[in-house]
Every structure is written in C-alpha cells, then in structure tokens.
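Protocol step 4 of 5: obtain the predicted structure for the target chain.
Materials: sequence only (see below). No template structures provided, no constraints applied. The aim of this step is simply to have a reference model before the mutagenesis design in step 5. Sequence pasted as it appears in the construct record:
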Amino acid sequence: MLSTMPSAWSYFVVCHLLLFATPEISVSGHISPELVGLDALPVGRGTGWDFQQLEDLQALQSIRWWYDWGPSSNPSALKFASEHNIEFVPMQWGKWGIENLTKVIDLQAKHLLGMNEPGHQQQSNLEPAEAAALWPAMEQVANKMGLRLGTPSPAPCGVQCVRSSPFQWFDEFFEACKGCRFDFLATHIYTCNADALKWYINDCKKYKLPIWLTEFACPNGDHGPTDRQQTFMSDALKILDMDEAVERHAWFAPRTSGDWLGPSASLLQADKPKLTELGKLYTQYPGMVLLQTEETQSWTNMCSHCFLLSESLTFNDTAKQLCSDCGFKLW
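Step 4 output (structure tokens):
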C-alpha cells in the first residue's frame, strides 16, 4: 500500500528502469515487489473460496492469497499457488479440532486465521469468553509452526446473533484474553456504501492491530445492477489499498448467487473459469501490478495501471508517452 501518491516523475524512473535496466529478463506469471523494487503492488488482495477446480484459481492468479475456511486445501491448488507466489492461509473455523491443527496445516503456511464469525449462531457460534479460553491452544499451534496469528473474525449480525455488534464481541473477547497474542485483526463487512466501509475500518483501528478484512462485498440482490457492484468495488479498493492499517482484504466470492449477494458479485463466470467484468476489475486494479502479456515475456511489453486514484492525478502528455513507451497503460 502506498503512503504517498506517486508522481509523474516516479513513473519516468520506473519506466526507464524497466526499459533499459533489464530488457532481456524473462518472467513467468506475476512479478514480485522485490524484483521490481516497488511497494505499490496490491499484495493484500485475496479471496475466500474452496478451489476444487484448479482452473478457477488459474483464472484468478492475480490474487496474492486465499483461504477456504479450513486448515488445508486442494493439493493441486496448493501446488499451483506455490509456483505462482499465491499464499494459502489456513483457518481454525470453530472450536473443534484445534488439537489436530499442526497435523493438517500446510507446511508452507505463514499465517493462521481464528474462528469464523463467532458472533453468528449459524457460524462458529462462540461467546467471547469461550473463544478466549480456546486461545492458548491457538497460540501453541502458531508458536510451534512459526505462524502469524489472526483474531477470530466477528461481523455485523442481524439475526440469530451471539452479539449483533462485532465491536462488542471484540471488546469482551480482548477483556477476557488479556495477555494473549494477536498479530492482526480479522473481520467481515457487507455493504454497498463505500463510506460505511470506511467508517467500519476506522472503528476497527481502535484495537491497534493490522486489519485483515477477510470477507467483503456488496449485497446486490438477485437482480441488482452490475454497475452498482462495480462502483462499490472501485470505491472500496481505493479505501482499502490506500489505508496503511489494512494489511489484507478478501472479496466474497469468486461465484455468488441468491437473493442476498446475487450473481453480480461474482468474480468468475457461472459456468466457466473466466473472469467477469467485476473479476477483471478486482484482479487488475490498482497500482503497479505487472502482468505478462500474451505477445511477449519481456519487461518492455509489461502492462500496468499507472496510478491508484485516477481522478487524483494529472499526467501531462510527456508522462503519458513515457508510460506508453514502457508498455504501461492508464486506468
């Protein structure tokens, strides 16, 4: 994530580094931030999904991480992910099976997510004190495997709730778990209002932990307009990518349906592993994501989006030409 807006001069430097410094370098898939020397790559972009069909993950390979609400995933997906710098993040969904976690978590794991929506009775359904009593066992797993440990992920709840407010659940949990270890805060929010999303993220900051928004989307209904979904996603990504407190975020989901989220929230087409227009927006926006083109593997024809907030930057003709010459395109 960027802490300051990039200038036209910075793109002059980047383009010329790419054009002249390493013109013969050949790449496969996505370029890591370390290779490019940029900190603007959306390394926090992910999704929640059980990739039983490898082709779905291949279509979404621009994401940097995913989870599937369990401690491990499809072996073919894990193999593909390891070859393409995509991280799988295991989760302890509820209170059962913590004693077996070290036996089933993928050895390449770097993070561990806590219980899913404990404030919902139809999800992991945990009182804050109950989750706190389980937390020493979670810490033991994380310590033994060298994992960063995320909190449980309460979310706003409307019906059948342990607590309707995720902040009430968090407050009671942290009070009951004093001295416990938490490396980041996980939570969910569903809204079609970007201002509400920003408010929610700002309220999460009171816990002074890096934020992982492990589910978010616009509940657009069965017949909701696609442009509403795209507008929300564009506005949401600007907020999430520019906020240094937000470490990662995960759109829900690659495929959606029904009268709540509706099909317009899908990143993938319903009947094939192809990106929807929303999926293209999510995987291509924003920042300096360097993607391999079909025509060549050379750096000179890599394409990228030249800026994060298009309406906030003004590029003169010279700057635009520099980006064009380097194989960049403006959003």
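Step 4 remarks: The first helix runs from residue 8 to 21. Residues 1-41, 287-316, 325-331 have pLDDT under 50 and may be disordered.
Proceed to step 5.
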